[in-house]
């Protein structure tokens, strides 16, 4: 197990390194010089040159990458050109919105998917199964930002139960949770539909196994077999999908945050792109990608814990 | 399961027909602004109502279908064009360094939230339908490479491949003449799925302003423009979304139906 963990750790480090190099070079490709962009068109060439030097833009590319990477490793992500504040602090601030949003959406997706998947599996092949699976097909086809607009139309504009957008900050926990609810539901529903389908097919497969027949034969009811034996064994594919969904949720949050004007990481990336605040774009994207790589790593590790055969 | 094939063909056929018909006929000119007739609800004259510039929504949806389908289709083409050869190569040299490089490269691309990178790419190259195609297409490459490799590996162990090798055929010829036809089913099904994901991705990108630019109508941008008017005229927000749902649903059902129809193991006696 230890050797497995070490091997996975090395590949985790490599992935993060390559990812950081990729992000750095893609952002470097952005046309236009940030220094002249910041100073405007009327700036003197000497002023631009001085700012370029101050920002380290006159250094060769590999050196700038190493410089940036060194900063990332020590928690110094540089300073935003437009906000004049440390990028690390900005990202931490925005994470306080994005992370709870993604986690809330993930929790909602699981809460919706579990009963639906179990219901469909218990009634496999019957009308209830067909109806529920048909509904999940529609759920998968929903663009989450459109679903978000419909939710706003119903719950914010017509019923006035929940806010249509904005975020009051965590000093008002109740109001903050309320303003994250609609975005989380919008993010969760399409993911719940996928999860429910995976859970159903995993359950249907386990329900065909011999030990399930044994459990039934020793007198357990169908419901007991489902919750005690089948569900536990169907969890591996569900776990895989959950790990992947975290990545979808983070990415989906970028668009949803824009629908609801939430000051999260996604909105930060957008604003930074339009303002050519490249250091912010680089670092924020790196944080997102690193989070996804880390989650994948943790999911891999948890498999190895659950299933010894995977440790090879 | 036949039902999903039929329904899927009908729904995705509807979107395709709308896109094709828009080349020769639309109820109204989508470049014609008529502010006096803005935000009209659906009526006999404008079946799906009008938008905030008084443009006929039905015509906008029809022309928008073109954008969505073209972007998603070309993105699938890019994914297949690069991904399938890569996957075939990886399978032919299974276990070798080339296989390792292709598969680790794939892992890496999978680690990136696709939308984040699509946003980065369009931010670097500038927002346009073409760059949306590139951004979505790049993410289709590892998907097709993986499906191709996964499908090809078991076939390489079969006797008739041995026979072909003994007969002196090289790995390239075997891949094209024997492997490819045998995994065509897999690729068609995956193509349908990626097509539907491409439509969703295009809608998302143009919703945030990184896809097709005005005046080219696109479903995602119609939704973005409708966002501020959703309370005034809900139909401008509901209709483009429905168009997306119908198309994506149709393609997903078609993919499911094709998988069942093409895979003899899943085919049950009626």
Automatic annotation (TrEMBL), chain A:
The keyword Secreted does not apply. It is a multi-pass membrane protein. InterPro entries: BPD_transp_1_N, MetI-like, MetI-like_sf. The chain crosses the membrane at residues 99-122, 134-159, 179-199, 234-256, 284-306. Gene3D superfamilies: MetI-like. Residues 95-299 form the ABC transmembrane type-1 domain. It is found in: Cell membrane. Keywords: Cell membrane, Membrane, Transmembrane, Transmembrane helix, Transport. GO terms for molecular function: dipeptide transmembrane transporter activity. One of its GO terms (cellular component) is plasma membrane. Belongs to the binding-protein-dependent transport system permease family. This is Binding-protein-dependent transport systems inner membrane component. The lineage of its organism: Bacteria, Pseudomonadati, Pseudomonadota, Alphaproteobacteria, Rhodobacterales.
């Amino acid at each position: 197990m230890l050797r497995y963990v070490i091997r996975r750790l090395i590949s985790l480090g490599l992935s993060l390194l390559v990812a950081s190099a990729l992000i750095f070079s893609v952002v470097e490709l952005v046309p236009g010089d940030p220094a002249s962009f910041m100073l405007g068109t009327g700036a003197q060439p000497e002023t631009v040159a001085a700012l370029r030097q101050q920002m380290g833009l006159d250094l060769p590319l590999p050196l700038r990458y190493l410089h940036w990477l060194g900063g990332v490793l020590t928690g110094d992500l540089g300073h935003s050109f437009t906000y004049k504040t440390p990028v690390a602090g900005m990202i931490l601030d925005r994470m306080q919105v994005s992370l709870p949003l993604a986690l809330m959406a993930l929790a909602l997706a699981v809460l919706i998917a579990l009963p639906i998947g179990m219901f469909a599996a218990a009634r496999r092949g019957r009308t209830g199964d067909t109806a529920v699976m048909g509904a999940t097909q529609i759920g998968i086809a929903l663009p989450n930002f459109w679903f978000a607009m419909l939710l706003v139309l119903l719950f914010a504009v017509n019923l006035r139960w929940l806010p249509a957008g904005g975020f009051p900050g965590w000093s008002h926990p109740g109001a903050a949770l309320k303003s994250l609810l609609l975005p989380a539901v919008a993010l969760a529903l399409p993911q719940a539909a996928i999860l429910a389908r995976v859970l159903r097919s995993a359950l249907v497969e386990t329900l065909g196994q011999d030990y399930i027949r044994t459990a039934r034969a020793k007198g357990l009811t169908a419901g007991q077999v489902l919750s005690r034996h089948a569900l536990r064994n169907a969890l591996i594919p569900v776990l895989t999908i959950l790990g992947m969904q975290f990545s979808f949720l983070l990415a989906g949050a970028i668009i949803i945050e824009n629908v609801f004007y939430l000051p999260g990481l996604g909105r930060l990336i957008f604003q930074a792109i339009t303002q050519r605040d490249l250091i912010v774009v680089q670092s924020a994207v790196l944080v997102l990608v690193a989070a996804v790589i880390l989650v994948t790593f943790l999911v891999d590790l948890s498999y190895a814990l659950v299933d010894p055969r995977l440790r090879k | 399961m036949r039902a999903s094939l039929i329904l899927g063909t009908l729904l995705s056929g509807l979107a395709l027909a709308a896109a094709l018909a828009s080349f020769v006929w639309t109820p109204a000119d989508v470049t014609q602004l008529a502010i006096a007739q803005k935000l009209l609800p659906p009526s006999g004259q404008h079946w799906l109502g009008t938008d905030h510039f008084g443009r006929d929504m039905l015509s906008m949806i029809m022309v928008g279908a073109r954008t969505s389908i073209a972007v998603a289709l070309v993105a699938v083409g890019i994914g297949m064009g690069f991904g399938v050869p890569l996957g075939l190569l990886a399978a032919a040299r299974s276990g070798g360094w080339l296989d390792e490089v292709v598969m680790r490269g794939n892992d890496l691309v999978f680690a990136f939230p696709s939308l984040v990178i699509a946003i980065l790419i369009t931010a670097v190259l500038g927002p346009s339908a073409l760059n949306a195609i590139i951004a979505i297409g790049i993410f289709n490459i590892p998907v097709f490479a993986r499906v191709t490799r996964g499908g090809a590996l078991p076939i390489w162990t079969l006797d008739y491949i041995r026979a072909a090798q003994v007969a002196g055929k090289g790995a390239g010829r075997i891949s094209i003449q024997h492997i490819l036809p045998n995994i065509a089913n897999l690729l068609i099904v995956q193509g349908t799925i990626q097509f539907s994901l491409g439509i969703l991705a295009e809608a998302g990108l143009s919703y945030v302003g990184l896809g097709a630019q005005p005046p080219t109508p696109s479903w995602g941008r119609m939704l973005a423009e409708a966002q501020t008017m959703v309370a005034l005229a809900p139909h401008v927000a509901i209709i483009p979304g429905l168009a997306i749902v119908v198309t994506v649903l149709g393609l997903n059902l078609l993919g499911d139906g094709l998988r069942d129809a093409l895979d003899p193991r899943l085919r049950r006696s009626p």
